[in-house]
Amino acid sequence: MKLCSACLLGINCRYNGVSKPNEKIIALSKSEVLIPVCPEQLGEQATPRPNAEIKGGDGLDVLNNKVKVIEPDGNDVSSNFVCGAEEVLKIAKLLGIKEAILKQRSPSCGSGQIYDGTFSGTIKKGDGVTAALLKLNGIEILSEDDFK
Questions:
Q1: pTM of the model
Q2: φ, ψ of residue 139 in degrees (nearest 5)
Q3: Mean pLDDT split into 10-residue runs, the chain, 148 residues
Q4: Are 100 and 144 in contact (CB under 8 A)?
Q5: Helix (H) or strand (E) segment spanning residue 122
Q6: Which of 27, 61, 83, 142 has its CB 3.0 to 4.6 Å from that of 57, i.e. a possible disulfide?
Q7: For residue 47, is it left (φ>0), alpha (ψ between -120 and 50) or beta?
Q8: What are the residue boundaries of the structural domains of the chain, listed by start?
Q9: 120 sits in which H/E element
Q10: Parallel, antiparallel, or unpaired: how do β-strands 113-115 and 123-125 relate?
């Protein structure tokens, strides 16, 4: 059993109200139990919603209250992202889950790659808020890039 970003399973929960289905991950769901989660929705954000990026750091920095997750207009949504990450962690602990397949480059789910906070499409090294929290708690993170 693994957690999985709901958007990768075809659920319309991304910031723009659509999904990002991954056929290999959907095929995997036929043989393994994948629990769909959307940290941003679990953090009480609407769908659709403005996109957001981590400005000046990564998810670990957000968890340590050193940097913020912001929307293009400067609105700080850090508390939503932390709340959503904590809810995903609760699900993982409740079900004894040790692995998660998360959407790469997301400010929540990105593992090793996130956008740089300038809303220019530039990618930098780092983890999203949920990926960082799950890693801190010993949960292995995979991304859709691992299923090519």
A1: 0.97
A2: -95, 130
A3: 98 97 97 98 98 98 98 98 98 98 97 96 97 98 92
A4: no
A5: none
A6: 61
A7: beta
A8: 2-30+41-147
A9: none
A10: antiparallel
